[in-house]
Write a structure and sequence with these properties.
Elements lengths: L1 E5 L3 H12 L3 E5 L10 E2 L3 H5 L4 E4 L4 H9 L13 E4 L5 H12 L4 E4 L2 E2 L1 H7 L2 E6 L2 H14 E8 L3 H29 L4 H10 L5 H11 L9 H17 L5 H15 L10 H9 L9
Parallel strand pairs: 1-2, 1-4, 2-3, 4-5, 5-6, 8-9
Antiparallel strand pairs: 7-8
The chain binds ligand NA7.
Ligand NA7 binds next to helix 1 and helix 3.
């Protein structure tokens, strides 16, 4: 298929690369010029989108999606009837509905396709897509999902993908924070982190989040798989959605405060696992996993 891929960050670059590898004709654009081997580099979102069947976005946040679609040199003038926009950025469900309404006036379908699986999933083409949109439009996108991921979950009409993604990240943030607090207290009580991880993984406490994050934490590698600043964005989006729906989320509100301080401490571009650094600082310990 002819695809315009807009946004070549940690996730987008790997995803666009997998589209090229699967034989699709890909035009790429990134705000800071970047290349993807085998793809045509376009000078603007409008240029990338010209003649495309599908426009795929993967940029940071709601404002970035709005500017790529409707800002200067944005996609909008290049939209023609029958095209499908697919947005893999994690953004506001409410804004998603507004964007969808605006492009539908041109006969263009809008599917929200946020994903989960982190950098490793994007690189290996094993992402899970959490999709909201018209069934036929989603059907059209299937070869592209297949090139970048292993499974899609259609959660309902447009906007439901973003809503479901937010509640997934709410859980990831809380589960990881539980793990980080456990590691911190364990260190203070003299329990070795590696032994603790063995115990967790053999017990009902085990989780995919701990399984994925523990090896990084134990070797104190806080380089970004999913940057802390982006997880805070998702926490804020979830709290915003909760407020709109008149739902109280006390656990997430507390975790947001931890993220705010972590960002003040300069950890915005580290992985969100780096919230541990703050807990360690407060406790006056460092988590070590030296023993067998
Ligand atoms: P990254 O690695 O932080 O990449 C963010 C991308 O978004 C990158 O290409 C940025 O371009 C682009 N960006 C940011 N702001 C803008 C604006 N205003 N206009 C156009 N492009 C912009 O994030 P990930 O790849 O990890 O994640 C992307 C999304 O997936 C995000 O919503 C996650 O929550 C899930 P740059 O290179 O800085 O010029």
């Amino acid at each position: 298929m002819r695809v315009a891929f807009l946004g070549l960050g940690i996730m987008g670059h790997a995803m666009a690369t997998n589209l090229v590898k699967a034989g699709h004709e890909v035009a790429v654009w990134n705000r800071t010029p970047k290349q993807v081997e085998g793809a045509r580099a376009a000078a603007s979102p409008a240029e990338a989108a010209q003649g495309a069947e599908v426009v795929w976005l993967c940029v940071s946040d709601t404002a970035a999606v709005e500017s790529v679609l409707f800002g200067t040199n944005g996609v909008e003038p290049s939209l023609t009837e029958g095209m499908v926009i697919s947005d893999s950025s994690t953004i506001s469900p409410t804004a998603t509905l507004k964007f969808a309404e605006r492009v539908r006036r041109k006969g263009v379908e809008y599917v929200d396709s946020p994903m989960t699986g982190s950098k490793a999933g994007a690189e290996s083409g094993t992402l899970l897509f959490i999709v909201g949109g018209d069934e036929q439009a989603v059907e059209k996108l299937k070869p592209l999902y297949a090139a970048m991921g292993k499974k899609i979950f259609r959660m309902g009409e447009t906007g439901k993908g973003q809503s479901a993604k937010l509640v997934m990240n709410l859980q990831i943030a809380l589960i990881y924070e539980g793990f980080a607090e456990a590691l911190t207290l364990a260190a203070k009580l003299g329990v070795d982190a590696k032994n603790l991880v063995h115990l967790i993984n053999a017990s009902m406490v085990k989780s995919g989040v701990v399984e994925y994050k523990a090896p990084f934490v134990l070797r104190r590698d806080f380089s970004p798989n999913f940057p802390l600043r982006l997880m805070r964005k998702d926490i804020r989006l979830a709290l915003e959605a909760a407020k709109e729906a008149r739902v109280k989320l006390p656990g997430l509100e507390t975790v947001e405060e931890v993220y705010d301080v972590a960002i003040e401490e300069g950890h915005a571009d580290l992985d969100y696992a780096a919230t541990l650094l703050l807990l360690e600082k407060w406790a006056g310990v460092e988590v070590k996993g030296e023993a067998a």
